Amino acid sequence: MLDDILCDFANNQSLESMERLVSYFEQDDVAISDIKKLAETLASSGCRLPFKDHRADIASTGGPSSLSTLLCPLYLDVLGFDVVKLGIPGRPAGAIDALFQINNYKINYTLSNLEKEVATGGYIHFIADQSFTPLDAILYSYRKQNQKVDVPFLAIASLLSKKIAVGLSLVGLDIRVSKYANLGHNNIEASKYAKIFCETATNLGIKAVCYISDASTPYQPYIGRGESLLALYNIFLNESSPWLEHHKEYCKNISRNLVIYDTYSDSITDISNEDLHLAFKRNLAKQEGVYSKFVEYCDLIKCSHDIEIYAPTSGYCKYNLEKIRDLIVEIQNLEVASDNKYPDPCGLILQALPDIPVDKNQLIATLRLCPKYRDKYISIFNNTIATIMSHPPNIQYNNYEVVING
């Protein structure tokens, strides 16, 4: 049955074929072999690189406020791995659509161009398109339009298809657990799907490790495409806040853990912010990005945060990440154009740690927002981004569960 469904989808990509495919993978129990078959079908729909040892990446299951898909490739590069990252846009800010904001940053590659860049090693990051995993891009677009992004078996196949396509031998998966997550709404579900991910990867010849963490509270305070770049810049300048520093340590720890899992060696020296900075500059040079334009854009983002949001009462700030994500994505969608698929009209910088009490009228966030959307959206942001609670959440910084096959 699945063979017929996959054949129909591969041949015509009709709405009916995608509906049948999604329905099949919405079943409670789908065989590992079926997930593997879908991943291979998606990967084989475009160009592929051969598998290569010492080629790695850390992907994520999505969700606002994490920078793992921006920071972990830099750590892996510094740790001596080739990083070939094939990504899709995030909601509201994935790594590839954030990097796209940098002047001239190249995100589309032909096979011949990619092979040339990969041959020199280092870190390269590009987007799924007609050249690489085109069926995955089509299916993901259908899933977004039909609220099917959080179908776990589809998410696993989609993630692995991109790793197959670029010939990874080692992959980490940052699983972010929340009620709106793609791979489990609680730790029990996430652990189940992590094991399935790792087993499927093993059957595809890929070493895999999953890292499960709590995404119900923000990992760090910078939310938005430009804000993600600004967070990186602050790290490079040694100007990160304790909150951002916690998240940087998390990204470093899971990157080191993945390397140790692969090499069985714990002789890894510490990695400085300047090491990350140099890795980032190498990536920009490889992908034709202009570093001075990156700095200019970060400065522009920082200066554009001129709207302040204050606590309506005293207590602990519970940020509503799902509503924050939906609001930013809604405004981004209003700006999408044929010549700008990944616009950056707004973003937030959170100002109050959720486990530290705030006073009434204390600043809890700053907002960057295009002038034409201010009349409608400022009050909406004010009223929806946070609720003040009487008790603090139980936050355990850098706490995560590790799942491997077997």
Description:
By secondary structure, the chain is an alpha/beta fold. The chain folds into two domains: 2-288, Pyrimidine Nucleoside Phosphorylase, Chain A, domain 2 (3-Layer(aba) Sandwich); 304-389, Pyrimidine nucleoside phosphorylase-like, C-terminal domain (Aldehyde Oxidoreductase, domain 3). It contains 15 helices and twelve strands. A six-stranded mixed sheet has the order 3-2-1-4-5-12, sandwiched between helices. It has a four-stranded antiparallel sheet with strand order 6-9-10-7, sandwiched between helices. The longest helix has 22 residues, at 242-263.
| Overall tally of structural domains | 2
CATH topology of the largest domain: Pyrimidine Nucleoside Phosphorylase, Chain A, domain 2
Q: What would you call the shape?
A: globular
Write the CATH homologous superfamily of the largest domain: Nucleoside phosphorylase/phosphoribosyltransferase catalytic domain
Indicate the proportion of strand residues: 15-25%
Give the SSE string.
HHHEHEHHEHHEHEEHHHHEEHEEHEE
**What's the tally of helices?**
15
What ranges have pLDDT less than 50 throughout 5 or more consecutive residues? none
In spatial order, strands of the major sheet run: 3-2-1-4-5-12
Task: Measure the end-to-end span.
Answer: 30 Å
Q: Give the number of DSSP strands.
A: 12
Mean pLDDT, all residues: 95
CATH class of the largest domain: Alpha Beta
Structural class by secondary-structure content: alpha/beta
- What is the percent of helical residues? 40-55%
User: Major sheet, described briefly?
Assistant: 6 strands, mixed
Radius of gyration of CA atoms, rounded to a whole number: 21 Å
